[in-house]
Design brief:
Layout lengths: L4 E6 L2 E6 L10 H15 L6 E6 L11 H9 L5 H16 L5 E5 L2 E3 L1 H4 L6 E4 L4 E3 L13 H6 L5 H8 L5 H7 L4 E2 L5 H10 L5 H14 L15 H8 L4 H11 L5 H13 L3 H14 L4 H15 L9 H11 L17 H5 L19
Parallel strand pairs: 2-3, 3-4, 4-6, 5-7, 6-8
Antiparallel strand pairs: 1-2
Helix pairs in contact: 1-3, 2-15, 3-14, 6-13, 11-12
Length: 370
């Protein structure tokens, strides 16, 4: 179906392997369609009792969507880019609601779109090499692929912190905060796949039990970096629970004189100098709104938000195009954001991203969850 996705049935298990390692397995539209086709075929296939997702190459499962394609399509005046997001978000929902065990091997780099095809998994396995993030605000986007939903469901205000800053964290943090289930040594993943492929499973529950047992019985990975988020939970909640981004920045400025001064200074500098002012404010609002939404509703909202971020609704300015240009295309790292700083972002600038009707008849994701 595509050169960059290999789908095969081994024993009673369907394997989906992303095979685009030179691009960190970034998701193209064809890759998304290939994954969706395989999952649809296996859903009612009695020979398939479970699904394993993995990425080819040493660097990781998936670094996100093909953002070069986004820039090229918008720059050429094409609007079919929204078909990409329609199919991607449908895939995200399919995974989260899949009736058979879907086991995600979240090894190496797992960011953005890679999180979208992993977070809905029945079992999320990470390794000592896992590097996880939702870094979209750095390129003028927001944490999509259901990011608002799974970030909103983290404890306290971790979701606001991770969604606005886009910081990278590892396996221990992922398990401790609820974005992964278990750590397995990277070197043991082939043995896990062989165990699942060669087992004489009677049903899907047996497949899932075998995967969990293998994970529990695996030796602890060597070189496992300790978590960094748990010691910061109280200060993250204190600051990222404040009313808005200007208040958060003000609080971080004050905190820079106190116990967590290093973290506060680093976080304030990151938000002020390395993130889109508009999209940090949008991401904050997104996560907070998503606490009242189902995954289906959040994906419908994100589809409308994506139209805005690329100015396909003609009202918001193409923040995403400029961010991708600066960080990925020209690599000058000097994006010309629409706002000089976070304080310049007005409430109405943020509100435009959320004033679409997610249940309108022309939303292509209307049928999700129905």
């Amino acid at each position: 179906m595509t050169d960059f996705v290999r789908t095969e049935i081994r024993g009673r298990i369907g394997f989906i392997t992303l095979t685009r390692p030179k691009a960190l397995n970034a998701l193209s539209h064809d890759m998304i369609r290939a994954m969706a086709t395989a999952l649809d075929q296996w859903r009612d296939d009695p020979k398939v009792l479970g699904v394993v997702l993995q990425g080819e190459g040493e660097k990781g499962l998936c670094a996100g969507g093909d953002i070069r394609y986004f820039h090229e399509a918008i720059s050429a005046g094409r609007t079919d880019i929204m078909d990409f997001f329609t199919d991607e978000y449908r895939l995200n929902y399919t995974i989260a609601s899949y009736p058979k065990p879907y086991i995600a091997l979240m090894d190496g780099v797992v960011m953005g779109g890679g999180m979208g095809i992993s977070q809905g998994a029945t079992l999320r396995i990470v390794t000592e090499a896992t590097r996880m993030a939702m870094p979209e605000t750095a390129i003028g986007l927001f944490p999509d692929v259901g990011g608002g939903f799974f970030l909103a469901n983290l404890a306290g205000h971790l979701g606001e912190y991770l969604g606005t800053t886009g910081i990278v964290f590892g396996a221990v943090d992922a398990c401790e905060i609820g974005l992964a289930d278990v750590v397995v040594p990277r070197a043991s993943l082939p043995a896990l796949c062989d165990r699942l492929a060669n087992g004489d499973w009677q049903d899907s529950d047996a497949v899932l039990d075998a995967a969990r047992t293998f994970a529990r019985e695996s030796l602890p990975p060597s070189g496992l970096a300790p978590g960094k988020l748990a010691p910061l939970r109280s200060v993250i909640d204190e600051h990222f629970g404040l009313a808005d981004m200007p208040a958060i920045l003000k609080g971080l400025k004050l905190e820079a004189r106190c116990e967590y001064s290093g973290w506060a200074e680093e976080t304030e500098d990151l938000l002020r100098t390395k993130r889109s002012p508009l999209m940090t404010c949008v991401a904050l609002e997104q996560v907070r709104r998503a606490r009242k939404l189902s995954l289906a509703d959040e994906l419908r909202e994100e589809w409308l938000m994506m139209r805005s971020v690329f100015n396909l609704d003609g009202r918001t300015g193409a923040e995403g195009v400029e961010g991708i240009r600066a960080m990925v295309i020209d690599k000058d790292h000097k994006p010309r954001w629409q706002h000089a700083n976070i304080e310049a972002v007005k409430p109405e600038d943020v509100a435009r991203f959320f004033d679409g009707e997610r249940h309108s008849a022309d939303n292509p994701l209307l049928a999700l969850g129905q």
